[in-house]
Specification:
Blueprint: H1 2-16, H2 25-32, H3 34-54, H4 57-77, H5 82-92, H6 97-104
Helix pairs in contact: 1-4, 3-4
Length: about 110
């Protein structure tokens, strides 16, 4: 069931593209443009780091959910499917992190 939540979220985010910015938080992010979305991704990433540094597992989960949400908004804004990200993770599965990183520098 949990894997389906990304599909559902992607559908909702896509539907918000046509909505009034006054009526939807996501529509307001789209209306403000890519820089605002990037700002939110950076803000949420920082909040994950701070929660982790404090060792607060509950806050790490909540802040990571916020980060994933805003990353999904970013992907939607760029017309990139979350399935592309999942496919990339699947491609990397079973590959040493060192080997994978080295392959990107070629």
């Amino acid at each position: 069931m949990n894997s389906e939540i990304l599909d559902e979220l992607a559908r909702v985010l896509e539907s918000r593209k046509g909505e009034n910015a006054d009526d939807s938080y996501v529509a307001s992010l789209y209306a403000k443009g890519i820089n605002k979305i990037l700002e939110k991704v950076g803000e949420e990433a920082t909040e994950v780091i701070l929660a982790a540094k404090d060792g607060d597992r509950t806050e790490v989960v909540k802040e990571t959910a916020d980060l994933w949400f805003h990353c999904m908004v970013l992907l939607s804004q760029l017309d990139v499917s979350h399935q592309d990200v999942l496919s990339e993770l699947e491609r990397r599965f079973g590959t040493s992190g060192h080997d994978e990183k080295a392959s990107r520098s070629r």
